[in-house]
């Protein structure tokens, strides 16, 4: 999951070993409930994600994506929170993509297929990530 915008039926993948580990198990429970047309149980599972501190920003983004599928609208103050920014740069050779998240993680994918996954091992990129997220927070 790069952006946190996958349809609920696709996250986590049905063959993923992570489906039994939190927080992925909550997404899997929401998937199952949605498949059984049980929106209440699906919403409860997704709200567990939102209520859990310390998860990756992409988890919160994915939870809200799935909740929107269920017709749940975030409160205004929550809707204004910037959890991530994606920048796409179209080059003659292809597309470069940079995604930065409020938890300090980032992803860069070069048109060539090369990429960098930054899981925030230290604060060296923190000022740059905050600078990228900043304009969206205003």
SSE blueprint:
Elements: H1 24-35, H2 39-51, H3 57-69, H4 76-79, E1 84-91, E2 94-101, E3 106-109, E4 115-118, H5 126-133
Antiparallel strand pairs: 1-2, 2-3, 3-4
Helix pairs in contact: 1-2, 2-3
Q: Could you walk me through the main structural features you see in this protein, from its secondary elements to its overall organization?
A:
Helix 1 runs antiparallel to helix 2 and helix 2 runs antiparallel to helix 3. The chain has a four-stranded antiparallel sheet with strand order 1-2-3-4. The mean pLDDT is 93. With 138 residues, the chain is of the alpha+beta class. The radius of gyration is 16 Å and the shape is globular. It has two domains: 71 residues; 54 residues, no CATH class.
- Reading the helices and strands in chain order gives HHHHEEEEH
| Helix count from the secondary structure assignment | 5
* Structural category: alpha+beta
Radius of gyration: 16 Å
Strand residues, percent: 15-25%
Total E-strand runs: 4
Poorly predicted runs are: none
Number of domains: 2
Give the proportion of residues in helices: 25-40%
Largest sheet: 4 strands, antiparallel
Shape: globular
Q: What is the straight-line distance between the termini?
A: 26 Å
Mean pLDDT: 93
- Main β-sheet, spatial strand arrangement: 1-2-3-4
């Amino acid at each position: 999951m790069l952006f946190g915008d996958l349809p609920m039926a696709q996250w986590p993948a049905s063959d993923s070993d992570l489906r039994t580990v939190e927080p992925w198990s909550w997404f899997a429970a929401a998937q199952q409930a949605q498949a059984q047309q049980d929106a209440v149980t699906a919403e409860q599972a997704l709200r567990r994600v939102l209520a859990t501190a310390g998860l990756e920003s992409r988890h919160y983004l994915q939870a809200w994506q799935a909740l929107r599928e269920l017709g749940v609208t975030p409160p205004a103050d929550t809707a204004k929170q910037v959890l991530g920014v994606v920048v796409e740069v179209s080059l003659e050779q292809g597309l470069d993509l940079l995604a930065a998240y409020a938890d300090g993680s980032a992803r860069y994918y070069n048109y060539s297929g090369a990429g960098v996954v930054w899981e925030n091992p230290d604060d060296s990129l923190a000022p740059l990530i905050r600078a990228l997220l900043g304009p969206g927070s205003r």
